[in-house]
Amino acid sequence: MYIFATFDHSTYLELALAAMEENGIHREKILAVPINRRNPKKRLFDTIHSSDGVSLLDSGMALATAFSVIGASYGFVLKWGPIIWGLVGAVAGASIGILGSLILYWRKHSKEKRIGKKATEVIIIIDCQPEQRAMVEDTLWDYLAYGVGKLDT
After folding, report:
1. DSSP state at residue 29
2. Which tens digits make up the pLDDT trace of 44-67?
3. Less CB within 10 Å around the terminal CB: N or C of the chain?
4. pTM of the model as a whole
5. Do residues 7 and 142 lie in contact, with contact meaning Cβ atoms separated by under 8 Å?
6. Backbone phi, then psi, for 103, in 5-degree steps?
7. Edge-to-edge, what's the strand order for the sheet holding 2-8?
8. Environment class of residue 69 by beta-carbon count within 10 Å: exposed (0-12), middle (13-18) or buried (19+)?
9. Strand partners, 147
């Protein structure tokens, strides 16, 4: 029978492995596999085929629409007319929206750099006898496993 568990790479993992060895699971029956995290480059502009959830143009286009409507409305009483003031409002709204999104993006990105990245996760695979299953699962849960699964062979 195989027991699978996922852990953060921490001292709890080491304590869980030591407890397994103390409870009669031999070191040869335990397999620990570290999982590397993907570290994709963040892009400023999304494509049709991939999106990372960060979009700089959404708020810019929404503000451009709102400011162009306001500019065109007031343009009827101002000197240059509604078309020019609508275009001025669109450019101003797009600029404010894109700059605001960039500032928020850079602030969030710099905060992520300061905090640091989370350590990798580790998958533990334990080959044990069916009568040891409850003890192994309880030990893994006691040492803060993210998840525990079993495979009967």
Report:
1. G
2. 566 666 566 667 788 899 999 999
3. C
4. 0.54
5. no
6. -65, -45
7. 30-35, 121-127, 2-8, 147-151
8. middle
9. 6
